[in-house]
Specification:
- The chain has a domain of 67 residues: High-Potential Iron-Sulfur Protein, Chain A.
- The longest helix is centred in the middle third of the chain and has 5 residues.
- With 104 residues, the chain is low in regular secondary structure.
- The protein contains 1 helix and 3 strands.
Length: 104
């Protein structure tokens, strides 16, 4: 008999499949974080975004794999410069803040 995990156990994690977006195949994008901008993926609702540009297009990411990835541009503090509208990596963690763009 399978045990069902309580929903609250993973309440902060929303997989991309729940957003009705295609999932990137393993190995797509950059070598460490598997970050890509070739599709309808989004970083805009991720908890690792620490700063957004005034036009809302670019942001800074504090996720460890993104910071270590040699193919992602960095700011002077080592945070990844990401596209909030089209970019996403394998380690996306959706924010549950009021006003986020998560679909329930």
């Amino acid at each position: 008999m399978r045990r069902r995990l309580r929903e609250s156990t993973f309440s902060a994690f929303t997989p991309l499949k729940e957003h009705n977006l295609p999932i990137l195949p393993r190995g797509t994008g950059t070598p460490v974080a598997e970050y890509a901008e070739q599709g309808p993926y989004r970083c805009q609702d991720c908890v690792y975004v620490i700063k957004r540009s005034s036009n809302g297009q670019l942001g800074l990411c504090d996720e460890l794999h993104v910071k270590r990835d040699p193919k992602i541009r960095k700011d002077k503090h080592g945070h990844g410069i990401i596209d909030l509208i089209r970019g996403c990596c394998r380690f996306h963690l959706a924010s549950k803040k009021k006003g986020s763009n998560d679909r329930q």
